[in-house]
Amino acid sequence: MLKYIGKRLLYLILVLLGVSFIVFTLLYISPGNPAKIILGEAATPEALAALEEQLGLNDPFLVRYFNYLKGIVFELDLGTSYNTGRAVLDEILAVFPNTVTLAASAIVIAVMVGVTLGIISAVKQYSIIDNLVMVFALIGTSVPIFWLGIMMIVLFSVKLHLLPPSGYGTFAQMIMPAVALGLQSTAMIARMTRSSMLEVIRMDYVKTARAKGQKEIVVIMKHVFRNALIPIITVVGLQFGQLLGGAMLTEMVFSIPGLGRLIIDSISMRDYPVVQGGVLFVATCFSLVNLVVDLLYAVVDPKITKS
Asked: Is residue 25, in this structure, part of any structural domain at all?
């Protein structure tokens, strides 16, 4: 088990190194001068040169990247925001709980609805219910999040006056963002649950359990659903990681002060340390979620750790 965990941690470190290098490189070659944005268009060349030197913008690429990595590894320092002067990690931690709350709400809705629909669809294969679930899954994976969010605001806020159109902090304000963000994940989980259960439901041991006279609900939940869990766990873990990184559109539509909105605002202001730190932070969370999923595999099926 320890060897299995060690291998996954090594892969995680390699992934984060790759992400940091790619993001740093993209921001390095992107147009725009952060010093000019900070000082404004009226800044003198001398002031610009002094600020570029202070920020280390004149250093070669490898020197800047090495200094960036050194700060992360030895000091857990993601840098300092060009615009606010605050530590990037403090900026991220100030808004990240909002993103986690939104993503967690969305994944809870997705798991509850998606798994239920998937089970019903698999048990009632080729029925009207099965067809309706598949149509819902197709629509759910096709509808853009930002469009769905806008339509929900128009319907439930402007027309029906049932829910607040934006903001963050109350239960009512979280309903529409969580549903809009979780729809695609709901559809994915429903499809995977159905597909995985259909593979298991035809197995001989399921027929044997029915032949022994066990109740259908016991056969479905104990023998079919439990043995179909690994693909479902995979999808749920990946979807939660994607929700953490993909919540930015939802946060922009519903004016939620989260990490995604912080990154988008920082991109427009050329606040490179916040963009780099935000993306790396999201990648770390995504990788940790995948690590947890891998460990859940080992709990569900101990034979995996021997591979």
From this structure: no
Structural domain that includes position 166: 88-306
Closest CA to 228 of 208, 202, 205, 199: 199
Q: Which tokens is 214 given?
A: 């066990």
Is the pTM higher than 0.85? The answer reads no
- Number of folded domains that form the chain: 1
Residue 158 structure tokens: 């402007």
Q: Is residue 126 part of a domain?
A: yes
Q: Is residue 115 part of a domain?
A: yes
Q: Across the 307 residues of the chain, what is the mean pLDDT of every consecutive 10-residue run?
A: 75 86 85 74 80 80 87 83 85 90 92 92 89 90 88 92 87 91 91 90 82 83 82 84 79 87 84 87 84 73 58
Helices 171-201 and 128-142: crossing angle, nearest 10°?
130
Residue reference for tokens 């857990």: 76
Residue 148: both structure tokens together:
């769905």
**Which stretches within the chain are classed as H helix?**
2-29, 34-39, 45-55, 61-75, 88-123, 128-142, 145-152, 171-201, 204-211, 216-218, 229-246, 248-253, 259-268, 272-300
Residue 19, domain member (yes or no): no
